[in-house]
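Q: Fold this one first, please.
A: Sequence and structure below.
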Amino acid sequence: MGLSSLIKVAQGKHAGSVAFEEEFLKRYEEAVKKQEEAERQPVPTEYYRPSSMYGCERMLFFMRAHGSGGGVDDMDVKLIEICASGTDRHLRIQHLVESMEGVTPLDLEEVAREARQKGINTEFVGWNEDHTEARCKNDDMSIYFQPDGVLNFMGKDVILEIKTESTYKHSNRFEPELNHKYQATCYGMGLGIDYILFFYEDRNFCGKKPYLWKITDEMKEAVLNKIHTVNKALERKEPPAKDESKCTYCRYKHECELVEKGEWVYPEGKEDGK
């Protein structure tokens, strides 16, 4: 019996009821993790996640060298459900946008095919089981990506990027975040489309803020330079410098500490992040 349950008993709650509730919650959390394991679509380690592209170069290095992280047993159930809630909301918004008057949804497989005709080395990977999410990969950039949608509106082809956020962040939102621009730049370069429609939603009150943004040459260069730096580090099997301003939520703090101590060793059986 956990500490919180012991406190309930001490406060007069029946021990049998507490044990029942504790076991129910345990089984629920197991069910959440089981479903996450079944639905998870891991990114192959030879590719970068565009959503991580703004991150520290050393973090990107570790993602390629070690993989994107542990299994679901290592994940917090609250985080799993927050992500699942965001995904569900994304799908609803995506379907509503695609049904809007004047909007023509574009087929991602066809968009990827057209990108290849332009000389962009992007390949359509396929759909998930319920045909709600599709993925592409670009071997030249080493990215594996899944845009929220591609559509034509008012004669302009745009990549749709949906973001849900807290009321506080939404009320102070006046432009797309830089990390979201890095992510969307990967999508745009991979599909040969320069315009991004960011669509931010207040997850508490459902307020909406759309921003049409054109990918700049400077942003493209920044993404390519980061990929080049990390790829070279992988060839040398030596972690690049870390960016301490991005350490707070990094999942590779342990590996980073080993590097600082001179104790980190490149994983056996891995070659250039593959």
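Q: Good. Now the second chain.
A: Here it is, same layout.
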Amino acid sequence: MEILKVVPLRKNLWALNEISKTIMYVVNGQNYALLLDTGFGLSPLKSVVNRLCGNRPVIVVNTHGHMDHNSGNNQFDSVYVGRYDEPESHSATDKSHIREMFFQALIKENYDLSSWNPGPCKNVRTLKDGDVIDLGDYKFDVLETPGHSIGSITLLEKNQRWLFTGDLVLTWEVWGQLKNSSTLRIYAESLERLAKLEKNVDVVFPAHGIPEKKVAGYTEYELPPEILSIYAKGVRKIVDGRDKGVEYLCMSEKMRRSYFTIGGIVFDPGRIG
């Protein structure tokens, strides 16, 4: 199995696909490079970014504080995260949980994990709504979009019309309500906020993709902006009681699942809000 696949998407933009589970992104700016998420920390990310971008200083941002997006944080001197996910960003990485949930294929292939050393970054800085990540020629507006986690953030590059949404919208069902997720009503409000940007966005970059998903206009790394309104309308139907979903077992907990025309969501009917 290929541990890290580097995929060119645009000039100065790459996707880093880690074991076909998590997608990180690298942007090569004039003054700084941006690494969005650090995945499981299976690869030497600093050297990968340096190879792509030269020796520019690297700004590392986590879209949210979940272990499949921040376990490589300890490879860097400082990391930015949405302010409400900051407490979770100091937690020790649960290696056994990651192995059980995500590394089945690696274990089946007898991949040597003895040198895998994930963990938090000692210097965690916070981002809030309205902050700007300035790379020199690329400028990313920070949007607080609580839902999948209470501190989830979305990055918008207005000139390029790029939107990086983390786990907020996917081509398969998002696990919308985990222990540190927002109520579904707040999730809907975040989606509705992004749906209003639909005409100002050309492409949505998700943090997970399914390569075998064959839908016109959708790829593993790039989604059309219509997915924002699809999710906003779908989650609003659940909040308003017009879609009850079907029973679904999520991490040994009884949840409900609803599908949209593309994607869907797993939610807790007791946490509608």
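Q: Anything worth noting on the second one?
A: The longest strand covers residues 4-10.
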